[in-house]
Write a structure and sequence with these properties.
By secondary structure, the chain is α/β, with parallel strands linked by helices. It has a single domain, classed as Rossmann fold. The chain has six helices and eight strands; from the N terminus they run αβαββαβαβαββαβ. The chain has helices spanning 2-32, 45-52, 81-90, 108-121, 131-134, 160-164; strands at 35-39, 62-66, 68-70, 97-99, 126-129, 145-150, 153-158, 168-171. The chain is globular and about 40 Å long. The protein starts with a helix and ends in a 6-residue tail after the last strand. The mean pLDDT is 91.
């Protein structure tokens, strides 16, 4: 029974956190006419379902950057974080812009440079992170985007140092949706 109660509390907390993240998106749109966010493709299907169900977000004013992509992963690959965000968010909501590093590109250094330039030209104001971002190496790397190790895979990712500079950060893990 304790476990059930604990799960219900975690679920309620996750729901409140999703509502708070949605409210932050609405506030950014109201204040700036748009919301520029970083989203982690490792977030659960349940998270995405709950997030897109939030009312009052003008998704046509939301610009999304992907937190990272595994090197070698094409947009349709099973492990692709782009595919997860496309399936769970982009196909459901009329997002105005979506930016993601191309994991399958032949020149990862060029991908890093191009993605960093794009992130720097439109700095995200909000980050919604899951297990992928939680596994990014911690450090004070001045780079915006880098090739990093995530578990045993390499990925092109927005650096943890850059994510710490985002004004609002919401973190979700498997226990909390």
């Amino acid at each position: 029974m304790c476990d059930e109660g604990g799960e219900r509390i975690a679920e309620r907390n996750a729901e409140r956190s999703i509502e708070a993240a949605a409210e932050a998106v609405r506030r950014l749109i109201a204040a700036h006419g748009r919301a520029v966010i970083v989203i982690d493709g490792s977030l659960s299907d349940d998270f995405f379902a709950a997030f897109v169900a939030q009312r009052g977000i003008d998704w046509t004013q939301v610009i999304v950057f992907l937190a990272g992509e595994y090197l070698g992963a094409g947009a349709e690959a099973e492990e692709s974080l782009r595919r997860r965000v496309t399936d769970n968010l982009l196909r459901r909501m009329p997002i105005v812009e979506f930016h993601a590093p191309r994991g399958e590109a032949a020149n990862p250094a060029a991908v890093v440079a191009n993605y960093a330039a794009r992130v720097d030209s439109l700095p995200p104001e909000l980050a919604i992170l899951g297990s992928f971002a939680a596994r990014l190496p911690q450090g004070e790397d001045p780079a915006t985007v880098a090739i990093v190790e995530v578990d045993v895979k390499r990925a092109v990712a927005v650096t943890s140092a850059r994510l710490r500079r985002v004004a609002q950060v919401f973190r979700f893990d498997e226990a909390g949706l």
